[in-house]
Structure formats: structure tokens, C-alpha cells
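Trying the structure run again after the queue cleared.
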Amino acid sequence: MYEDFTVSDRWTGESLHITWKGNYVAIATRHVDATDIRFAVNGRSLYIAMPNMAWVEQKRRTGHVITDYLAAQTAGRYLKQAIASGYDNGRDIYTMTVDEVLDHAQAVVKEAGGTDNLPSLPVISDNIKPETFLGRLPADPGSPVYAGSPAPGPNDFVKTPDQIKR
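Done. C-alpha cells:
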């Protein structure tokens, strides 16, 4: 849906390839009450800031939460419409209102036919945990501060259902 798509810029006609890159709680990075959804637009970083009050309001109105998957899809839908309508002017960050988040989230869920049908976000590897692939956490084997064995052990790899049965 909106985690990896192409859209044409309304003014230039340029084809833009957009890919989701991550969700960040902006309280820590920008000291604001928002969650930033990062995309790459033809390789250029762009953030959609979604107010955290949207999560509260979604739960209050519907009884359902905004998951990471839904947040990424919602921000992607907003970005696609912004570019196609000519609203995008090359800024690095766009801020959605609570109502925009809720409207786009509702549209995404309707389009997908339910939250169970939302595509999962890209998996880095089917066999290795993302935190190990992206970098070492302090408690991970191989981390400079890890007191155990420096080599990754069997618990550092994701087991397939077939491997679990054995």
C-alpha cells in the first residue's frame, strides 16, 4: 500500500519513489509530542509528524489503537496525496493534525479491508533479529559491553516454525 510506492509530482511530473524507513517518537529527538514517520523520497529523507494525541483520540473514538503498521500506512497515504495534489514543496517535515491522522487512518483501514490486512513493514532478514542486523544492543553478544561470549549464540537467530517443532 503506502510503505513503498511511486507517485508523480503534480508540478514537475517527476516520478518519485517513496519507501518507509522508520517510526520515531519525536519527544526524544525534537522535544515535541509527536511521532515522526520517516520516508525516503528518491533517496531524500522526509518526515511526517503525527501528533501523539491522535493515538489517544483514536482509542477514545473507536476503541482501537493506531499500530506502527497503521501509522506508517497513514503517513504514507498523507504523503502520497500531498505530492499528487502539489502540496509538497520539498520540505523535510510535514505535520498532520489529529483530524488528518484519524481521517487517513480510517481511509487506510477501509482500503485494506481491516487492520488484519495491513501489509507488514519491511523485514530486514527472515533469519536474523533486526537489532542484531542493524547494530548491537548492550545485552547482545558481540557488543563491546556484553559480558558473555563475543559470538552470536542460537538465541540471536529467529527460529522458523519447523525449527521450533524439532
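The first strand starts at residue 4 and ends at 8. Worth checking whether this holds up in the mutant runs.
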